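Please complete every field before forwarding. Incomplete forms are returned to the sender.

SECTION A: IDENTIFIERS
Entry label: holo-386
Bound molecule: pyridoxal-5'-phosphate
Molecule representation: SMILES string

SECTION B: INPUTS
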Amino acid sequence: MSIYLDNSATSPVDDRVFEVMLPYLKEKYANPSSIHNDGRQIRDELEKARGTVASLLGADTSEIIFTGSGSESDNMAIKGLAYGMKNKGRHLITSNIEHKAVLETFKYLEKEGFDVTYLKVNNDGIVDIEDFKKSIREDTILVSIMLANNEIGTIQPVEEMAEICRDNDVYMHTDAVQALGKMPVDVTDLGVHMLTFSGHKIYAPKGIGVLYVDESLKDFIVPLVHGGHHEYGLRAGTENVPYIIGIAKACEIIKDQLQEDSKKIGYLRDLFEKRVLEEIPDTYVNGARDKRICSISNITFKYIEGEALMVYASEIDCSTGSACTSDSVDASHVLYAINADPVDMHGALRFSFGRFNNEEEVNRAVDILKENVKKLRQMSPLMSNE
Ligand SMILES: Cc1ncc(COP(=O)(O)O)c(C=O)c1O
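SECTION C: PREDICTED COMPLEX
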């Protein structure tokens, strides 16, 4: 049996989520836009689900837009606002450690005539507030900075940045795909205008995402998909009711057990990290260890290739760089951004822990890593050259 330590790439579906979805795949199939009784009942249930999601985020029900993924939510927020506000200004700000769903969207907008500032992070993986303040201009319309990074887990000072944005009449979006379910995420406390999250990172299925949009902003977002008046006119297409019911259940569970989950996940991650660092020589953690979500451990194993270790320790499911780019030969843009050693960065692996992991798996994973790191180092030219 493999040991699944890749929960940041995707999470298993929680049984409780699966159960509530089933009726909507079978008998509760009516279209929520239909005006017959069955349609109206589904509409009520869909809107109740919207309310559940809103309540987890501290938002109003009408501020929740269901999308098809975290990537789509990021695109809708960034392109939607950029196009909607282009007469006000054409300057946008982000960081150089964002997920590709954000970075590539900004790169696309550069081709469309927008001017983008990519803020650098320090060696801990955190954006500098003074640099951020200096980057704001008269024509800045939008800032998008992730709440927690998907490769090293570092948490950005989003609350502070959102306040600066509000003082400067600039809109702020945050990608909270990795943060939700690992730390409290409340849009009022954060002060952001838009926030993204995704179902398959919180024990709901793949293919469903959410974008929170501040009520005052909804009229200014240009939709990506035109058609019917679904999702307040921001995303045409008959709603994916079973998945919406599922993501709402996943949110309800987070509301009930965030503390319990984050305590358990943090305990397992810390146990893993402590044993690896103590028992496997020449290993270290990438990024800040204190300002991190509880679930991610990005570890460099010096003198070996991360991919080779994954092949040798094949019982462990984990990632090199970020999972979405694991078919690319380039080293991670995040490790470059934190000035990681260019040779060492090829020996970095991301382990991400979740609700369904246990202590026995963590201990077994460390034992497997210990044995295989030793084997690979015996053959490593980097090691023998030392
Ligand atoms: C920080 C972050 N943003 C966005 C995404 C994209 O989410 P989805 O896979 O739902 O498109 C991911 C997925 O890994 C992510 O980690």
